[in-house]
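Input record, target 12 of the design panel.
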C-alpha cells in the first residue's frame, strides 16, 4: 500500500483506538467494582464487563498490529513529532505523577513494605517525564541528556515490572497481574521508540513499525487499564486493591495521553519521512 493510501486509512482508523481505550477503562472499572472476587483474585465467570474490556483489548491490539504492518515497505520515520498542547499537558501530568511516585514508592513506613526493585523504579521514574519534556524543546531533542533520560526512564518501568513479577500477593495467573504486565509492556514499547528516535537512528522500516505499534497499543490498552485502575482506586474503599499504586497508574496514564498525541501527529511527520531503500 502506498503512503498516501495508508495515511488515508490511518486517519480513519487511529481515532478508534482511544475510543476503545475508554471502553476498556469503563469495562475494567465496572468488572473490578462488581465482579472481582478477592477470595480467589479472579473475575466472576459470568462477568459481562470482563468480556467487554477483554474484547475491546483484543480488537485494539489487532488494529494496532495491522496499522503497524501495512506501511512497512513504504513508510519510515526518522524523528519524533514536536508535542502539541495535548502532549505538553501529558508531560506536565507525567512530571506531577512521577514526583508522587518518587515520594510514595521510596519512603519506608512501619506498615509499608517496598521491594528494592520498586524503590529503584520510583527513584528513576522522574526520567520518564524528563524524556517527554526534552522532546518538547528543540534545543534538547536528541541531545546527551535526552538520551540518558530515555534510557533511565526505560529502566524505571523495567524495575517496576520486575517488582510486580516478584510480588506474590497476586497469583501468577491472576488477571490483574496479567493486565498490569500488558500495560507496562505497552509503556516500555513507546519508551523504546522514543529512545530509538532520541539516538537519531536512521530511518528504517522497523522504526516506523515500532513507532506506530507502540503509539497505538499505548493509546488503547495502557490508556484503558491505567484510567480504569485509577477510577477504581479512587472509588474503592478496599485496602487490598490489587492494582498498581495510583501515582504509578497516573504516570502510565500520562504516557498514554502522550502516545495519543504521537499517534495523531504521525501523518505530519510521515510526509517528511525517508523511505527505506531496502
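The sequence produced for target 12 reads:
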Amino acid at each position: 500500500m502506498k503512503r498516501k493510501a495508508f495515511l488515508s486509512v490511518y486517519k480513519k482508523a487511529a481515532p478508534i483506538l482511544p475510543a476503545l481505550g475508554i471502553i476498556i477503562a469503563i469495562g475494567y472499572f465496572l468488572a473490578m467494582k462488581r465482579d472481582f472476587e478477592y477470595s480467589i483474585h479472579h473475575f466472576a465467570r459470568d462477568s459481562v464487563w470482563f468480556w467487554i474490556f477483554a474484547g475491546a483489548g483484543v480488537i485494539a491490539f489487532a488494529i494496532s498490529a495491522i496499522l503497524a504492518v501495512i506501511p512497512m515497505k513504504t513508510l519510515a520515520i526518522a524523528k519524533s513529532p514536536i508535542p502539541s498542547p495535548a502532549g505538553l499537558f501529558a508531560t506536565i501530568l507525567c512530571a506531577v505523577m512521577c514526583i508522587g511516585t518518587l515520594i510514595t514508592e521510596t519512603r519506608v513506613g512501619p506498615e509499608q513494605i517496598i521491594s528494592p526493585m520498586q524503590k529503584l523504579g520510583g527513584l528513576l521514574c522522574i526520567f520518564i517525564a524528563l524524556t517527554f519534556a526534552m522532546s518538547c524543546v528543540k534545543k534538547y531533542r536528541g541531545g546527551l541528556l535526552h538520551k540518558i533520560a530515555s534510557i533511565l526512564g526505560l529502566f524505571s518501568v523495567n524495575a517496576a515490572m520486575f517488582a510486580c513479577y516478584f510480588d506474590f500477593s497476586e497469583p501468577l495467573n491472576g488477571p490483574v497481574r496479567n493486565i498490569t504486565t500488558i500495560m507496562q509492556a505497552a509503556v516500555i514499547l513507546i519508551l523504546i521508540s522514543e529512545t530509538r528516535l532520541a539516538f537519531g537512528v536512521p530511518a528504517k522500516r522497523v522504526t516506523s513499525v515500532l513507532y506506530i505499534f507502540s503509539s497505538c497499543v499505548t493509546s488503547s490498552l495502557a490508556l484503558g487499564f491505567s484510567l480504569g485502575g485509577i477510577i477504581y482506586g479512587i472509588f474503592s474503599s478496599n485496602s487490598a486493591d490489587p492494582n498498581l499504586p495510583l501515582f504509578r497508574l497516573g504516570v502510565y496514564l500520562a504516557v498514554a495521553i502522550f502516545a495519543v498525541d504521537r499517534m495523531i501527529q504521525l501523518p505530519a511527520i510521515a510526509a517528511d519521512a525517508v523511505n527505506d531503500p531496502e
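Residues 272-278 have pLDDT under 50 and may be disordered.
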